[in-house]
Amino acid sequence: MTTEVTGTPDETVLEAQFADTIGRKDRIEPRDWMPEKYRKTLVRQVAQHAHSEIIGMQPEGNWISRAPSLRRKAILLAKVQDEAGHGLYLYSAAETLGATRDELTEKLIAGKQKYSSIFNYPTLSYTDVGTIGWLVDGAAICNQVPLCRTSFGPYGRAMIRICKEESFHQRQGYELLMTMMRGTDEQRASVQESVNRFWWPSLMMFGPPDDDSPNTEQSMEWGIKTHTNDELRQKFVDMSVPQAEALGVTFPDDGLKWNEERGHYDFSTPDWDEFWAVVKGNGPCNDQRVNHRKRAWDEGAWVREAALAFAENSAAGATDDAAPTDDTAPTNPATTAEEAAK
Ligand SMILES: [Fe+2]
Ligand SMILES: [Fe+2]
Ligand 2 centre from 133 Cα, in Å? Predict the structure, then answer.
């Protein structure tokens, strides 16, 4: 399509081009024109997602110093570190929409932006690390795999790598629980107790029911979302039941049974009053999570200031001085040691 270059194109032409791109299931990129509401919806969703990754480091980070073995500690450290990385890719994606990380973090701390309500529940035992990996990262995978094809380019591309790492997170959780199920009666009881606590909050991770989710329809029209909350929740239940059977645990729901006609598992309605109470800030750990994030943000202010000052000085230096010669360039000790050994 050729448009005459006679100045700023008409808004209706731009809107038609935008709709056309979405219709072709092609991607909207940061420099493309987009409706202001599309941009705002994405900033809200990507920010909420980024905050969830960062706040989500806390419940499990709580157990790093108390891991039962060096192997478990290494796995948990790697997992929590992955979540930090996910947060950073997502804040970068939000930056391409014009929202800075500082601005988003300040909104999170002020309670103006949300994160997944699951992270407002406490981790009471090391077993919870396994349950979170299996159920919470499992629910995240159901939510996030379709987002790899979301209509905004930087968000979709960030999700591809995130999903690969989430799949490792789920496996390490399931493997931890499987190891415990092969252990003592006490360990098996601990797995069941942990699963009982996390099952319902995991189902709530998909958000409110479709008829109570005002943004879903528009987000689907824009190709931001490709499945509704209820569709994804059903998919998660169908996927988790056989895994629970293989593990030897049950879910705390008497209404959970296979429905031959629907070809899906039926399940009871989550307690949506509890969900809304937690979303509104009244969960068991809301204050603790946000206060911890605020403390880390405040205590890190000097690092951000120093990094900025260093970057400014380096930029000023680069224009004043000649580039460093090879003699002054830092040497890589690993390379030197390797060469010395030859
Ligand atoms: Fe993650
Ligand atoms: Fe994860």
Answer: 7
